[in-house]
Amino acid sequence: MTDLLFVLSKLFWLALRPGTFALLVALVGLWAVWRGRRWGRWPIAAGLGFYLALLLLPLHIWVQMPLEDRFARPAEEPARVDGIVVLGGAVEQDLTEARGIPALNGAAERMTEPVALMRRHPGARLLFTGGQGALLHGGLTEADVARQLWTGMGVPPERMIFETGARNTHENAVLSHALAKPRPGETWLLVTSASHMPRSVGVYRRAGWDIVPWPVNYRTGKGLHVWYAASFPGRLSEFEWGLREWIGMAAYRVMDRTDALFPAP
Q1: What pLDDT does 123 receive?
Q2: 3-state secondary structure of 144
Q3: DSSP state of 39
């Protein structure tokens, strides 16, 4: 059942992600108009209207800012950190496999922040969780890339733990909790993108782990100069990322994989 849900989630998003769906709607309208159906004007207006709204309005900011503001970074770093959990999603395993060096994407802070934390907390363990999150993939897992990257950055191998089977956030939480076996009183930090933190915290709480959120990779800011700085393709990508998080939280709540619809501190 878990494998079926994983496949369905990928297929669902492939067809219904906003950029693709709006284009399909507009094409249906265009086909209808070409066939002489007057109602086709409405799908064309809806599809093109989405792109126009994305061009004129900071939809990509509005959809992500509530997510990023939900869990603020702690005002003070914990005096003692026993471990750091890093969620996958920041590495490009196919590019790494093709070119032979670790490749990162726009969420690279997920991979750099833990190294700085490790230096400030010499007793902390570093746990990376991430396997293959795509239906079509090569031979490397996300954990393989993380190991290569952090080893090259000088992180001692004996301080690192790698979970290689997780394909989504739910599996990240369940499998990393089973691997780390955190003891009562230990302080573990959860490092992931700020917009991904609400869903992540809810899932980790459901898995029985009261982990400390440590958000990175902020994508929103204040002011028009930030709102309109991104290119149109960048805005579309950011909007889709944010909308996917809201859909993911709702779906996880329906499946009882999170402790709340919109987890809070």
Answers
A1: 92
A2: helix
A3: G
Amino acid occupying residue 233: P
Question: What whole-number distance in Å separates Cα of residue 89 and Cα of residue 110?
Answer: 8
DSSP character at residue 229: -
User: In the block, which residue shows the tokens 């922040």?
Assistant: 113
The boundaries of every CATH 3.40.50.620 domain in the chain are: 76-218
- Mean pLDDT value of segment 94-98: 91
d(CA 51, CA 236): 8
Non-local (6+) Cβ contacts of 40 within 8 A are 28, 29, 30, 31, 32, 33, 34
CATH architecture of the region 76-218: 3-Layer(aba) Sandwich (3.40)
Residue 262 contacts residue 70 (beta carbons within 8 Å)? yes
Q: Which helix (H) or strand (E) holds 25?
A: helix 18-34
Per-residue confidence (pLDDT) for residue 12, from 0 to 100: 73
Strands 188-193 and 212-216: parallel
Report d(CA 200, CA 195) in Å as an integer: 10
Q: pLDDT class for 221, splitting at 50, 70, 90? A: confident
Please tell me the distance from the alpha carbon of residue 176 to that of residue 5, in angstroms, as a whole number: 20
Average pLDDT over residues 106-134: 92
pTM: 0.90
